[in-house]
Design a protein that fits this description.
Largest sheet: 6 strands, antiparallel
Distance between the termini: 27 Å
Strand content: 15-25%
Helix content: 25-40%
Number of strands: 6
Oligomer: single chain
Order of helices and strands: HEEHEEEHE
């Protein structure tokens, strides 16, 4: 699978900006994760048993990324971030999160519904486009 070279996603953040915010949003104990173009990332608890985490991430985002009306894929939870600006939106699918930057939200005082719906839209887009922009692996000892 080729990595996307286009540095823009729907948020308007550059690939480098998005990557920096996502790195700061992830607990450092989790070193194995895959980031998709629009800010959805998948964290792997035990990646040592997975030969190709990129293929596994694509398989998971295909299954849990797209939003289907009336299903569990519509559920979400929003978490405020401490180490960077923004929020992570979680939902259906273990270890799958979507980063939302404050500049992506139109309201001056955003609410959880607006943030969650926007994050869910980004996850849906990543679940349909399948563009990986970064793979993070822990160093082997």
């Amino acid at each position: 699978m080729k990595h996307q070279t286009n540095n823009q996603n729907i948020s308007g953040l550059s690939k480098e900006e998005l990557l920096n915010h996502v790195k700061l949003s992830i607990n450092p104990k989790f070193q194995d994760w895959v980031l998709f173009q629009n800010g959805t990332y998948i964290i792997f608890d035990d990646a040592d048993s997975i030969a190709d985490i990129e293929s596994e991430a694509i398989k998971l985002i295909k299954e849990f990324g797209p939003v289907n009306s009336g299903g569990r894929s519509e559920d979400f939870d929003v978490t405020d971030l401490n180490k960077t600006k923004g929020w992570i939106v979680s939902g259906y699918g273990y270890g799958i999160y979507t980063y939302v930057h404050p500049s992506e939200i139109k309201s001056k005082i955003p609410d959880i519904i607006e943030i969650g719906l926007y994050g869910r839209t980004k996850r849906d887009l990543d679940g349909n486009t399948l563009i990986v922009i970064h793979i993070n692996r822990k160093l082997k000892s």
